[in-house]
Amino acid sequence: MKKILLSTVALSTLFFASCSSDDDNNDNPSTGIEVPATYKFTREGSSTVSFGGQTTRIAMAEEIISKLKDNSYTEAQLDGMFAHEEGGNDFSDADLNASSKNVRSKTAASFDFFSNNQSDATAIKEMFDMWIAKQVDDVFPNWNELAAAGSAGQIADGTSTRYVNANGLEFNQLFGKSLIGALMADQALNNYLSDGVLDAGTNVEENNNGTVAEGKTYTTMEHKWDEAYGYVYGASQNPETPNATIGDDDSFLNKYIGKVNADEDFAGIADEIYNAFKKGRAAIVAKEYGVRDEQVSIIREAISKVIAVRAVNYLQAGKDAVEGNEMGTAFHDLSEGYGFIYSLQFTRKSGTGQPYFTKGEVDTMISKLMAGTNGLWDVTPATLDELSNEIAAKFNFTVDQAK
Amino acid sequence: MIKKVLFLFVAVLAISCGSDDSGSDGNGADTFDRKVMLENWADNIIIPSYEDFQTKMNDLNSKTEVFVADGSAENLENLRTSWLNAYKAWQHVSMYEIGKSEELTFRNFMNIYPTSSTKIEQFVASGNYNLQLPSTFDAQGFPALDYLLYGISDAAVSYETVITDAHKDYLTAVVSRMKTLTDEVVADWETGFREAFVGNSGSTASSSVNVMVNKYVFYYEKFLRAGKIGIPVGVFSSSALPEKVEGYYSATNSKVLFEEALTAVQNFFNGKHYGSNTTGESLKSYLVDLNAKKDGAGLDAAINSQWESARTFSQSVDANFANQIESDKNKMLGLYDEVQKAVILLKVEMMSAMSISVDYSDADGD
What is the DSSP string of B171-224? Predict the structure, then answer.
């Protein structure tokens, strides 16, 4: 039976392979776009790909979420990492300390969503500030206490230990998973892949003429595209062929593209995203902006879907744990789920200027999740199903597929 | 669209394969008396195993008291022997994480390894600790005793002299907590839980058989296969981690503990009464009753035969798994493969023959 199944899988793989190669043949042969085998683009022998700032911010974010679990840290130290200033002795890595970049200024800061909406941008940044503050004020002092409904402390999740506030929230998870939306997805989808950024000023004219940015090998438009790429693959071991290690390269978007791709219901989504980045970049080189914009749509939809799938996945895992009375496991899953729900407001529905869920809708979902007297201690399976269904209904997948 | 059609095609093939298979699995009628099996489990295996473990914990407790009062070499040896006897008996109860032991997360407090020598030494030095906290799982239980009784220093002779009074205080605290938890779990089985367990004899997901089989296979997969062999030999990491074997500090017990656990798992499967050769209704007799087959022969026989293969393979492995991993990792991987083969038989073949769904996932969170 196994052999039959295996050969069936092999057979179907062959069919899929032939389908997708058909697709490849439709890659607009008339346009003269040369899509390279890997994400490698050069001009006169020099690479034109650059996204050092994204790699730096991912590394900064990694250290912040790690130190959020170290109860020897003060709020000022953690704030210093989040809103780092050049030369500040905030990180363990000297290169990060020397950098002029920081995470906070790019949180909820995309051109499309926030350039005319400082009130939401500020409210969201302050939410991240508050999670840091609450971690230090509410959770750290109770590091060596047992958590209970209404009191912060530690709780077992299998053989792991989780540190939660009085409502069962792990702030390091809220922070890390919300950043996937507020930093990585928002910057990639709503900033660097935005017409307003790619085509800003004289970008199109310069790109048409092959005029490079001052002192650089790339045109500004090429660079903006690469900066979007960097928020997904900036920590990759080999960013030219990042899918070889997808999921293992960071704790953020890369990780969860890998996780969703590993679910057979969504297998191939990592290639879909990577191929669209590659083709869109090649389209910029070929000055085929219509093709570029088609790839933007593909990337926006796929990355938005990754966030939604993980939100539902964690809500359902949390539901199973609640039903099994494994509250530590439930809190961990639901704290991750909280972050992914929060991230939904930074998704992007292609062809619109809107996210799949507005900030208001996200805030309502979070309120439902935390509605119990003691927050997650009181959450019901029915609520978790309701939220799961609400999210899946806006995408073309089912709750079962996301499990 | 084409993809959708193909999916259907694949699904249809898969379904037809599946139903062919279950056809050959017997007549499909499940007339097995689950209640009789539950009684055999509770009365002849689980409770006697716990009671024997409790006896050995009591002995460990008294040998600890003797050693703390008089730290002679002889008293240390007696304490070490008692520790190993209790650790072996533990292998017979670790899999029953149900009822009170589940509520307490008994196994987390008794046998999380590798133990943290750093944490233990901090607690010993400060005298300030709370062994109820999850963050102290790796500073208590049998592995912490392994460290205290063998690992404080490399001294081969006069080891008793390196155990300071502060270490003795901590030793007492650890043993006392183990004894308290054990007493609590045994008392629960003896005063009511046995009846609840046996009485819940249906076949729903929350019935005792379904839950116990899940606990049992989960234990086999995660704690016996992965914990004792797979993690230290590096199946789940980029390199081998020999310091993660069970009984790392005493150095010679990792294989003994593994073999004891394998015996316990097999005895439970066969319904063998604890400390006796008598057998009763069991997973084995359930499979026989279902006429479950594997390659033409009984699935029950295939499972037992796989465990015998693992046991035979184990004979060629060093008694100290850490040494074996360092000298010839491949032999340890071979043992892992033999143990792993039974996971498929239990988790896929046995559980589907019994129509029991797997209620746990392999995901480790995050």
Answer: HHHHHHHHHHHHHHHHHHIIIIIHHHHHH--S-STTSHHHHHHHHHHHIIIIII
Question: Count of CB contacts below 8 A, A vs B?
Answer: 59
Note the pLDDT of residue A30: 54
Q: Spell out the domain ranges in chain B.
A: 27-353
Q: How far apart are CA A202 and CA B36, in angstroms?
A: 82
Nearest CA in chain A to B128: A144
ipTM of the complex: 0.76
Name residues whose C-beta falls within 8 Å of residue A366's C-beta, 6 or more positions apart in sequence. A338, A341, A342
User: Based on C-alpha coordinates, what's the Rg of chain A?
Assistant: 22
Q: Residues B123-143: pLDDT tens digits? A: 999 999 999 999 999 999 999
Do A15 and B6 make contact, defined as CB atoms within 8 angstroms? yes
Mean pLDDT throughout A195-212?
A: 96
Query: Within A344-398, where are the H helices?
Result: 359-369, 381-393
Interchain contact, B112 vs A160, CB within 8 Å: no
Give tens-digit pLDDT for B20-65: 343 334 445 788 999 999 999 999 999 999 999 999 999 999 999 9
What average pLDDT does the structure give for chain A? Answer: 93
User: Which candidate from B6, B14, B112 shows the least CB-CB separation from A159?
Assistant: B112
Residue type, B148: L
Average pLDDT over residues B157-163: 93
Place of tokens 């009784």: B149
pLDDT value for A31: 64
pLDDT at B23: 36
Is pLDDT above 80 for B15? no
**What CATH homologous superfamily does B27-353 map to?**
M75 peptidase, HXXE motif (1.20.1420.20)
Pick A160's closest partner by Cβ from B3, B10, B365.
Answer: B365
Nearest to B14 among A8, A146, A162 (CB): A8
Q: A387 in helix, strand or coil?
A: helix
Phi, psi of B279 (to 5 degrees): -125, 160
Read out DSSP for B76-116?
Answer: HHHHHHHHHHHHHHHTTTTT---THHHHHTHHHHH--SS--
Distances (CA, A) of B209 to A233, B179, B188, B237, B353: 47, 28, 19, 34, 13
Does the pTM surpass 0.95? The reply is: no
Note the Cα B194 to chain centre separation in Å. Answer: 21
- Does A173 lie at the interface with B, CB-CB under 8 angstroms? no
Q: Is B105 at the interface with chain A, CB within 8 A?
A: yes
